Amino acid sequence: MWLPILLFVMALMVNFGTFATWRVRGEVVSRHAAWRTRWPRTGIDEGRQRPAWPLNAEMRIEPADQIVQLDDPQINAPVVRGPLPNGFFVYPVLDPDRIGAFQGVAAVQREYPLLPRLGDFDSGDIDSPLLDLKWQSALMGIPNRFRRVKILYELPRTAAALPRAFASAVQRTVAIPHYTGLRVLDRDEDILRYTGSYVDFHPRTGGGCELDLESVYANHVERLVDTRGAGGRIRLGEISRLPRRMTGYFLSMYQRRWNQLESELNGMPPPSPRRRAEIQAEMAELRPKIDQLEAYQARLGQIERDLAQRAAGEIP
Fold first, then answer.
1. In sequence order, which residues have a C-beta less than 8 Å from that of residue 240 and are 6 or more positions away?
2. CA-closest candidate to residue 46, choices 29, 26, 22, 27
3. How far apart are CA 184 and CA 191, in angstroms?
4. How confident is the model at residue 118 (pLDDT cuts 50, 70, 90)?
5. How confident is the model at residue 1 (pLDDT cuts 50, 70, 90)?
6. Does residue 152 contact residue 93 with C-beta atoms inside 8 Å?
7. What is the predicted pLDDT for the residue at 245?
């Protein structure tokens, strides 16, 4: 009496094991369909998984739905998705909601091995979504030596007079009579001679990417220029303090070299006559430079007070 029921249950177990196996195969095939088309692969020249996946079963790629997790406010940066101030327009190149998400799809329909009157097993679409957008230069067709800014942003148009004014300022700077004397700022031969490399003394704004004019001034410009601080006192910026910085650097470098030569000259064993002559010649060359810098250093206090007084009359 129980034998038909037991046989029916056994048939159901066999059928369940069969469609569970096909379901697992469908998950594997859908994932394989997605991953084999990741750039730079296309999957066109790759066949399907046979005999595990029949010819009459589905295996395809299609666009995926929007990935809502990417709308997290923590990563929804204006520099990527906008809006930006001051007339900058952000192209949706880096927006993963727009492109980059797709899914592999697998589907299979098979007869049950037992109890065929139950119909066929239909897996339906088995999806395997994938976000495959890493914005590599080759993938985006951008040469390595190319300004990405032009692809990411539409820059606001500036007044036509500004580029001309900049070009004119550069031309006037190059044309000044003492232009070659400015090499001391970044190409001084004595620094190369005594340290082995150049030193760049140009005051710089530093790194950063900021469109807010007040933030740019506060974080990058203010420390360079003269400002009026608490109590109305003038604070000299890095540009006005550059003479003191350079004087201290050169004076320290020359004095250090002087001490090295003096130690060698008075050391034991004493240098050869030829080397002694070389040392004395170099010390004779260094002495006027040290004296000149010490005299200028003594005047720096008054020079800076004059700069502060001039700035006080110009800074509100």
1. 226, 304, 307, 311
2. 29
3. 9
4. confident
5. low
6. yes
7. 96
Cβ proximity of 115 and 15 under 8 Å: yes
What pLDDT is recorded for position 12? 77
Contact 242, 224 (CB under 8 A): no
Percent of the chain with pLDDT strictly greater than 70: 96
Residue 120, number of CB atoms within 10 A of its CB: 11
- Strand 101-107 relative to strand 58-63: parallel, antiparallel, unpaired? antiparallel
Closest CA to 247 of 177, 206, 295: 295
pLDDT digit string (tens) for 18-45?
888 888 888 888 888 888 888 888 776 7
Alpha-carbon distance 44 to 46, whole Å?
6
Give the Å distances, CA to CA, from 277 to 193, 282, 288: 19, 9, 18
- Taking the complete model, does pTM exceed 0.90, yes or no? no
